[in-house]
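Fig. S4 source data, part A: sequence.
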Amino acid sequence: MNLAIEPDLQNFVQFILAATSGLGGEPFPTTLATLALIPALREAGAASGYPLPVTLELSDKKLEVAWGENNLRQTLATFRHQPATEIADSLRQQFLQSTASIDPELLLKRNREMEAFLNETKARAEREMEAVQQALQDQQNELADSIRQAHTDALTGLLNRRAYDEKLAHGFGRVMRQKTEPFSLILFDLDFFKEINDTHGHQFGDEYLKKMAKAITSSIRREVDYAFRFGGDEFAAIIHADKQIASEKARQILTAMNNKVSIGIASMSPQEPFIGDLEAFIHQADDALYHAKKTGRGRIASGRPDTRGEIIWDEITPEKVAA
């Protein structure tokens, strides 16, 4: 039977004592064993609204009770001789007739208490699930913060070199496979930053770097293009646009920095495809940056090979920016 409510438990205890006498056992030892059994059944959930299943078993001259999902067992009585099968069958019929299920009032009470227990269990499970979900969300947020910190330059808030390597490789590879969209890499080098830092101090230098970071982020599209700081006075931007648009973005940044930054651009598009691998693409942007610095600084340079493989440089000088 299921010991869902208190009358179920009391009925089960009374039947244990009656069965012991009916089978020819000693009532007193069984009474002591039953008194020890009751707390164990209550701890397992008996009479709490929880439908705790129990069985009373006669086997090998022993009367035992078993309960719960783990099939816990306790011996209640031991007989000198195996009781007759007819007596056991008669007791089983008496037990079935004595269960509370034939009493409508007790049946209603059992149903009410079991419903209350199930509702409480459901509410507790929902609270526990909410707590688990919140804990998972907190862990996800911590992981996201950790990843963001690992990919972010602490001073400027831009992405760092690690993020640059990952996003450049991913973006370049995708564009090279699909061959349907433009892609540009812009490299920046602040002109004479060491002199600025030495003359005005590190605090001024830090603010100058932040100004550069703001100039880049203000000129590109958020979550489409990306801005990076490698450390020192070196910056980069990945632009999902062709050379013309990348040059315009670079022009805006050059103006915002009072023409005191050298800029190199490497680009490709369906109309002007790039022949080479990622290393060659980066090398092209590096060469453009070096050309901008070598020819006077404070300017933008991008190059393209002619039919002989020689580089033709396109430059935007401070004069052209001012114009």
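Fig. S4 source data, part B ends here. The radius of gyration is 41 Å.
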